[in-house]
Amino acid sequence: MTDSRKSRRAFIRQLAGSVCAAGGAAFLPQLGMLGTALAQAPRGTVPGYRALVCLYLAGGNDSWNMVVPRDQARFDVYAAARGGVYNATSNPAGLALDLGQVLPITDAGSSLPYGLHPAMTGLKPLFDQGRLAILSNIGTLRRPITKAEYTANSALRPPQLYSHNDQENQWQYGRAGTSALGWGGQVADRVRGQNIYQPLSPCISIAGSNRFQVGQQTIPYQMGTGGVANLSGVCNPGASCSGFNSQRTAAMELLLAQTYDNAFQAEYAATLGRARELQDAVKTALDGPNGSLTTTFPGNNNLADQLRMVARMIKISRESDLGIQHRRQVFYVRMGGFDLHDNLMNANFAGNHANLLGRVSAAMAAFWAAMGELGAQDEVTLFTMSEFARTLNSNGNGSDHAWGGVQFVLGGQVNGGRLYGPWPDQTLNGPISLSRGQTIPALSVEQMGATLARWMGVTAGSDLNTIFPNLPNFASSDLGFMT
Q: Which pLDDT does position 43 carry in this prediction?
């Protein structure tokens, strides 16, 4: 092999490495270019815009402390199941919250009193204003199941019920079972035709790869909290370029312009070309005057950083005088740390449950304010998911993997200020709970997903049943929490 051929191959290997190091997988499904339209000042917004924002709480959120009953009779059952009210000195194994410290709310549907975790001060006013809904006792289900059926027939249970990975996948598939596709991606498949700039995926992740956003035609576009990643060793949008970087960029463009007979080479060149074009489009928009916000997000809060980037992407995506002009988008953000087998209530542990929920609350409240800044509160719905709730009883220092739990839905078109689904009897080993307080869900992931999918415009029964194959097993495919 000649030295020139060796040099050319070395250059191509280095170029490919640069793409991979820059997160090139984020760019795989993209095509085309925006050009100079991104530099124009916005004068309006895309009509009919709607976006879903999935906030995944990884590790299994102990959501039975996120919302608690506040009437004395039900609170006493809750407190007994949780081993009594936590006190670092007198009852360090207890997991119940102090009734006098929870944030009081009232379910507008039943007039029953409840309490939010005292760390969630940012969400109480949103519930009181009717913008936050609570889904009570929701989880993965093949169909409604009784405790007797659970005991008698394991085939009726969701597969691998207490496994983190399996249950996370099932929440993201939108079914109790296996799939190659996520329900967010399948919703996007059906509504993405309304978007002007098809090269930008309707599914955008600020938290890396995930199954939730993978559809038949849709692959999520991945970003970081700082925006679009630059490629290393070549010229990038908005940056000065000279020397060897400039020479490599010119050489790369020559390679991309060639016609390749080999299918692998042709697809590689096309993928890299699309990645470069999309990088230029999105980065230019975010770095321009239309990509900034005035809303203050809390510091030292990665979830807030992720939601701020979501808000910025919503801003540039729905501006009618910019080139993106998406009408439907699905976003994914993620926060970990909820697998609290230890130090759940320990105030001296930085990752305790109260601190986690405080960060969630502050980030969600800031995101809501940012949607107000954009005039998009009626156009965006944020919802939480987590693989399961936790055991009601204590393991001595925390809680363990369980089943049904509580999720939140926030948005301007949410019928909020209400709890959806019956509040469970929290008696240990009671009518709907197992020995450690693993609660059998009353609502399914499919029902929640179908309600949100319908709001996004997926209304055909055949489409809903394809995305959520267990949906016909339930009495209702619409839980009513969206207007």
A: 53
The answer to whether residues 457 and 463 touch, using CB atoms and an 8 Å cutoff, is: no
Within 238-262, where are the H helices?
Answer: 243-257
- What's the whole-number average pLDDT of the chain? 91
Token pair recorded at residue 221 = 């576009």
Give the C-alpha separation, 294 to 289, whole Å.
Answer: 12
CB-based contacts of 242, cutoff 8 Å, min separation 6: none
Rounded CA gap, 168 and 387, in Å? Answer: 5
Beta-bridge mates of residue 104:
115
For residues 96 and 84, give the distance between their C-alpha atoms in angstroms, rounded to a whole number. 6
Element housing 136 (H / E): strand 132-139
For residue 480, give both structure tokens. Answer: 């009513």
Number of H helices, E strands in the chain: 12, 12
Alpha-carbon torsion 432, 438, 439, 441, what sign? negative
pTM attached to this predicted model: 0.90
- How many Cβ atoms from other residues are within 10 Å of residue 68's Cβ? 22
Q: Is pLDDT above 90 for 136?
A: yes
> Quick one: CA dihedral 192, 31, 19, 39, positive or negative?
negative
pLDDT band of residue 169 (cuts 50, 70, 90) is: very high
Contact 221, 179 (CB under 8 A): no
Beta bridge partners of 114: 69, 105
Residue corresponding to tokens 């936790």: 390
Q: Given this model, what pLDDT does residue 278 score? A: 85
Question: What homologous superfamily is domain 25-234+275-473 in, according to CATH?
Answer: Alkaline Phosphatase, subunit A (3.40.720.10)
Q: How far apart are the C-alpha atoms of 77 and 430, rounded to whole Å?
A: 11
